[in-house]
Amino acid sequence: MSRIHVPINHQRLLTTNPVIWLLVWTCLMSLTLMSNPVNAQDCDTFRPFSFVLLGDPQIGYGNGMAHGSYQRFVDQAKVLNALPSDFIIMPGDMVHSNNPYQWKLFMQGVKQYDRQLFLIPGNHDVESLVDLQRYRDRFGADYYDFVVHNCAFVMINSETARDDAIDRDEHIAHWNWLEKTLEEHHLANRRHIFLVMHRPLYRYQADEKTEYENWPRGTRDKMLKLMDKYNVSAVLAGHLHQTREWDMQDTDAKSYTVGGTSRLWDEKGHGCRVFHVNAT
């Protein structure tokens, strides 16, 4: 059975679904990785490791709709379970229409994965405060951070961070946490800082117009300045249903997206990205 990371919510403590296996990790807010346990000393000691970025499962979208997307999600588990990676990051859009049946299929599907799963919500998972509370009831915090071998992963809810359409207080709280968290990891001299979000900051140009696929210019520019200030290594995202990578403007970071297992908008096929993290 897979293990879903259930972080503590920043706004309130929530009772999580009893079928989810919650483990406590002594380093920051993370937990034991199944294949490569991490202890407190490892938080400040770098050594190479690998992880998988798995794009939008979006159960209910694409060829075959619910059952087709579910089967591709399960088939992907068979591939990933055979790969030598330490954990899996899933940057949002677990379901398409956010209904109980699609969530049931998603929860059945993740049981096929034998690695630690770190999740954040996408725009199809959280569109309102009601959705946000349901997500927290199911999975815990919608934004959080964890450290593996002196590399920080800052998990961002793009739906409350990119603008205040869902709720202004949530937006402000998220940014307060984000700025504080990036500063702390920078002061801790992390070897790498990775930002994980559903919607990428932009697709082609840092000054492109605000669209459904990116972040508004105001929060985008603000994030790019923080990335440059705190020496962020990469942005890991989904949403585009395309497998792409590009050098980001106004910062030394790279941005990566991955097609996932629902409908694709390129010809690179369904799949994932495997990252091998080294000192550089």
Strand order of the largest sheet: 5-6-7-8-10-9
Rounded radius of gyration (Å): 17 Å
* Main pleated sheet: 6 strands, mixed
How many E strands? 11
> What is the structural class?
alpha/beta
The helix/strand order is EEHEHEHEEHHEHEEEE
Low-confidence stretches: 11-41
Overall geometry: globular
- End-to-end separation in angstroms reads 34 Å
Mean pLDDT: 86
Q: Tally the helices: what do you get?
A: 6
What share of the residues lie within helices?
Answer: 25-40%
Write the layout of secondary structure elements.
Layout: E1 3-4, E2 49-54, H1 65-81, E3 87-90, H2 100-110, E4 116-119, H3 129-139, E5 144-148, E6 151-155, H4 158-161, H5 168-187, E7 192-196, H6 217-229, E8 234-237, E9 244-247, E10 254-257, E11 272-277
Helix pairs in contact: 1-2
Keywords summarizing the entry:
alpha/beta; 6-stranded mixed beta sheet; 6 helices; 11 strands
Structural description of this entry:
With 280 residues, the chain is of the alpha/beta class. 27% of the residues lie in helices and 18% in strands. The strands form two sheets. It has a six-stranded mixed beta sheet with strand order 5-6-7-8-10-9, covered by helices on one side. The protein has a five-stranded mixed beta sheet with strand order 1-4-3-2-11, with no helix packed on it. β2, α1 and β3 form a beta-alpha-beta unit. α1 packs parallel to α2. It is globular, with a radius of gyration of 17 Å. The relative contact order is 0.17. About 11% of the residues have low confidence.
